[in-house]
């Protein structure tokens, strides 16, 4: 017997696939990974801490970020060990408790700090941020921007900033209308007899739908409804409507609310539907900064009041560029750490055993350009956020009755609208694709609930739909690019009107048309930016020409012409946004990167520019920027930059500075000890009774009821 | 008061967005959709029933399909009204009950009928099919193909075909090894003293992982382990190991099993992990068709025995091409019906009110080429299935000791391996993208659990990873294309060796190099097939050249050369697979379409060919098949074919012949009454108590515990 055990151990030791020698010591599949990550980190060519500061916008911001992270991570209420096993109902309850905790940190006067905390909490639990954001972002902001100063004060006194005896939701979307807010069908009919508005849901399609906070939390809602006075329809306006009585929480008369139920993700958010049956509210509940109704039902509103009313949504879009960065960095950290330690197939002459999958050129292609994109999204988030601050300042104190001043402020916002729409769409889509690619890059284990990818994807992808559907937004950016380009074409050469920075290159369209790569190198960041300017200008000009052709053909029907060229609009917006990403990354490196990190960041920028160029190669060939022969080398250049970045991949994920708490994945811990962490998560979940299956019984709970009756049947 | 109500109703009637007039009658958002689908169907230009027969492969198959569908739909056990609200544990139990019901229909001798039933059940519930498939597909098939006839008979006598006192699982994948089966680390060491094998898990990384059926169901497993005899490692072989005792279901000594827990999807499958600690099995439990071990531990095996051992996996890949068709057709039906009735923005001169979203050219682009692709996948599924039958017949009675005959049979299988690997990867990826696009095309409602997309996506995407990771498979097809191309290049011009059909065009490489579009039309299916042949030949030849350059450069290291050109391998395989799809669609139309449906099918084939060409435009420009000027027209051609197909979109989904039961979505019912169906699903789910939230109380269940304590706090 002893003999037999001995011979079996010998057999085990001789198993060639389980032995890998690192620095003279033998490791197997289980014991090797930690050693591998140590070696990866020893090869860092740059200062990791310095790169973290670059990403945060300076060491002071790193300190603030880390303080916020620590406060969340330490709070037992935010512990996420069981996160992937919670039911919808458990998530709903936990999320509200977290919203309550989070709300104590929020000072509406310190928006930047609130945004920062939300952005960080969102990495660990997206539902909490959305559920709190519905009140603090959508509800409160629309009271502030659409209400008069007195109205804002009034609702603050009711508890709107402290969440005391008050919780707001945002009643915009209806079953039949999402993107087209002007088409909403809920009515608010003024009744001069009682000085009230009557809010009504005329039919099923007008039911308010997806309203976050409505199902379980809200006492009040901003309701978007058609203002009807003296038989005339004035379009969609915001009204404050009380939904539940305080404090017993029963529904107000005429208010019907239900739970939307199961969603693809974000089950922590209590989305609900609301139907109003002739619900009466005082006239003063119309938010009256931009529209006024007097006691007789006379309505006055300034021109372009509509646009201003939806300004709250633009903030969300800007935030989502940064969210894209935050989310991408988490999932890439998991997939890259896993890829650095996972071995499969092949033979690496330096090590015994199989090849680590990150050493395969194809695997590098799947992940490393997306790592470069993530760094670029960080730069773009800073850039669009500056744009937002400028636009907000311009609008802040504008006198809406001064036509000229009002138009100037609106114009100032247009660049922000166009840039943020295109970026929101591109970055949220790119992040969906990144999460999916990262999951697949972890093979079967990526499909495990405890890798975090499934829940992460399901929670994320709604970002592509809400606050402006990505397709609608991209087409709208395309439309605005054609309009701007037409204006630039008609512009007098001596004009001094300011052209927004983001489209300034369109003024140089003629010059860019002749630009060729020639003998220059595609790995020069300046050449890459020019390449993207040239292709963006060419695509937008082609779209503009096509639009004008259609317009001439159809007798001046603007809407029809824009629809007919929708594919060109879509392409124009996408290429323009890619240019914005590449250029803002290159500019930010130039402006803020210290010598210790400049070289690695430049490599990332070049990789991104090349990778995007490769995907749009046909356009570069069509406009003659590169020749067919030059085009044949692009893929090899991408490969070579991937090989370069590969050596720095682990330090580049370390610079993201996410602790294991925020990573929350069996596959992505800092120490790289993948198999042990993953196994202990799986065993813990199936053993502690929080899932009923298995536990310490090899028979399922339905054994007598189903299994035994079938497998051990008599007939 | 009466007056007030009257004036309110007037206001309502005058709301411009709620009135749409069809044939003189006014409808609103809620009442219109049913009318719209009636009009869409009246416009069908082809015989819908005839097209259903085409898709099924003749009216006889339609009859069989419909009988199977009816038998499932009528069975109360298969009712899916609550499908999207079930917990993991509920799904596990329901799935096993359904497996038991399904198994009564299975006759292992009637494989085609079994496949057909599985394929149909899989549209409604993917987990059931997988859970049953693990036993009937993987376990049973590996006993039959790897075991001798006597071994197969033995296990059948134990209950392996009737599932009586027996349930099998497939113990291949380990924590540390998925794709590389040769690298598995579980050991099976022969002990001549007792004439037994000792199965052992040497360390954590060798734990069997993802084993469907292991957690709750299996009494036995085929375990893939390294055969070690007299100190020598013979590589991975299959052994039958008993896991649980019968009938008490407790674990056998030395067997440890746990539940894998939460997954991204398919929670109805009881995936488990297994660790063996010196588990002893009789020598006869080694499946010995291709490998034999005598009582002294002498091992004999024919050459290439390895390849034959994994043949079971190829069947799965072939099936998954058809699964891709089945799944895509379901989700496209939902998204297209919704798009036909949903209005948003714009203005259609024919109707009052907003534009139906399917009338937007951009929306057509998102869905209609994917509809064409779905029809093409149907044709490709038939084609690869024929290939499979031929290859199986060749292998069936081969004498493994006859070297020449054995090699011929293996060669016959190579085409099947290469084609099915590329197709499995392409079609399962395409289907993931289709489900995602369909979800986004339904806007916010696509994110509702009751639309079916979320669960559908989560259940589907594992198809891209299991039974051959899509990236690994695509690269392997690329490798085999380069190898075949090298053989063709070296081939004597007078050789009579048969070239497999799928790569026959490579023989014409030189001729295809010179082919240009010239004055011909890209809307001619024959021209499109030639275009794709030309581009595939060019891509494969470029890849082959690059491989030979690398080989020369690195001194003949084949593995290194293949890795270095992996991006080119990937491209070669993808383009080759696109050609296969376009060509098999065109061929099938030619061979089987009746005049009543040939025209619409041809339009679909052209749309597909053009849409794929547009995405690969750079390649067509690089090889000179089209000029820059010609390339500018491709997008407009795609647009015009989309506009053509749009008029037939609803009849084209009707031809898929899926009842509301199989659609199982609030948005996709046959009658188009979207808002009512969707609303009633949501209300029913939140009212019947199967979800604890809301019910008939406006307060959540955690109101006292969390909400009230926070909102109505005293401090």
Automatic annotation (TrEMBL), chains A, B:
Q: What is this protein called?
A: Uncharacterized protein
């Amino acid at each position: 017997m002893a003999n037999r055990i001995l011979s079996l151990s010998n057999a085990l030791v001789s198993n060639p696939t389980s032995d890998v020698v690192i620095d003279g010591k033998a490791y197997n599949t289980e014991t090797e990974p930690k050693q591998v990550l140590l070696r990866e980190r020893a090869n860092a060519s740059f200062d990791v801490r310095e790169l973290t500061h670059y990403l945060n916008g300076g060491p002071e911001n790193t300190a603030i970020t880390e303080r916020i992270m620590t406060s969340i991570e330490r709070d037992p209420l935010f512990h996420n060990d069981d996160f992937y096993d919670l039911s919808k109902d458990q998530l709903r309850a936990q999320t509200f408790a977290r919203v309550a905790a989070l709300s104590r940190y929020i000072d509406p006067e310190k928006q930047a700090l609130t945004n920062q905390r939300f952005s960080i909490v969102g990495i660990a639990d997206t539902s909490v941020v959305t559920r709190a954001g519905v009140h603090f972002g959508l509800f409160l902001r629309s009271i502030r921007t659409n209400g008069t100063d007195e109205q804002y004060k009034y609702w603050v006194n009711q508890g709107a900033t402290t969440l005391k005896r008050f919780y707001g939701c945002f009643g915009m979307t209806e079953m039949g209308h999402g993107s087209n807010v002007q088409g909403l069908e809920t009515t608010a009919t003024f009744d001069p007899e009682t000085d009230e508005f009557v809010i009504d849901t005329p039919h099923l399609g007008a039911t308010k739908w997806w309203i976050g906070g409505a199902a379980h939390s809200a006492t009040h809602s901003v309701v978007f409804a058609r203002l009807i006075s003296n038989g005339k329809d004035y379009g969609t306006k915001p009204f404050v409507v009380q939904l539940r009585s305080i404090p017993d929480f029963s529904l107000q008369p005429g208010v019907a609310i239900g739970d939307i139920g199961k969603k693809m993700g974000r089950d922590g958010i209590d989305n609900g539907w609301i139907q109003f049956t002739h619900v009466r509210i005082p006239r003063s509940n119309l938010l009256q900064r931009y529209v006024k109704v007097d006691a007789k039902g006379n309505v006055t509103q300034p021109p372009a009041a509509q646009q201003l009313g939806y300004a709250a949504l633009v903030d969300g879009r800007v935030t989502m560029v940064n969210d894209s960065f935050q989310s991408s960095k988490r999932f890439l950290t998991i997939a890259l750490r896993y890829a650095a330690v996972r071995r499969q197939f092949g033979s690496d002459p330096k090590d015994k055993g199989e090849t680590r999958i990150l050493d395969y050129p194809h695997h590098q292609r799947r992940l490393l350009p997306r790592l470069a994109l993530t760094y670029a999204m960080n730069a773009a988030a800073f850039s669009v956020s500056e744009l937002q601050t400028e636009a907000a300042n311009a609008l802040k104190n504008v006198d809406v009755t001064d036509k000229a001043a009002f138009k100037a402020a609106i114009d100032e916002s247009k660049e922000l609208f166009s840039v943020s729409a295109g970026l929101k769409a591109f970055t949220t889509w790119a992040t969906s694709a990144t999460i999916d690619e990262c999951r697949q890059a972890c093979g079967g284990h990526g499909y495990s609930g405890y890798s975090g990818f499934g829940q992460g994807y399901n929670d994320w992808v709604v970002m592509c739909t809400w606050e402006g559907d990505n397709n609608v937004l991209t087409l709208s950016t395309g439309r605005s690019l054609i309009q701007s380009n037409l204006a630039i074409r008609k512009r007098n050469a001596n004009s001094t009107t300011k052209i927004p920075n983001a489209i300034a290159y369109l003024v140089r369209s003629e010059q860019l048309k002749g630009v060729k790569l020639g003998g220059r190198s595609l790995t020069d960041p300046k050449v890459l930016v020019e390449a993207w300017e040239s292709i963006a200008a060419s695509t937008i000009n082609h779209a503009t020409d096509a639009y004008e052709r259609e317009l001439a053909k159809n007798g001046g029907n603007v809407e029809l012409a824009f629809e007919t060229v929708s594919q060109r609009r879509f392409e124009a917006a996408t290429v323009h946004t890619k240019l914005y990403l590449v250029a803002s990354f290159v500019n930010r490196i130039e402006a803020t990167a210290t010598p210790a990190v400049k070289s690695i960041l430049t490599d990332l920028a070049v990789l991104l520019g090349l990778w995007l160029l490769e995907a749009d190669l046909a356009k570069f060939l069509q406009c003659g920027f590169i020749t067919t022969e030059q085009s044949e080398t692009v893929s090899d250049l991408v490969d070579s930059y991937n090989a370069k970045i590969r050596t720095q991949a682990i330090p580049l994920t370390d610079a993201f500075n996410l602790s294991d708490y925020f990573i929350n994945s069996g596959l992505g811990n800092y120490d790289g000890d993948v198999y042990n962490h993953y196994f202990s998560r799986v065993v813990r979940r199936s053993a502690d009774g929080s899932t009923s299956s298995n536990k310490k019984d090899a028979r399922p709970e339905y054994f007598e009821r189903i299994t035994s009756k079938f497998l051990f049947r008599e007939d």
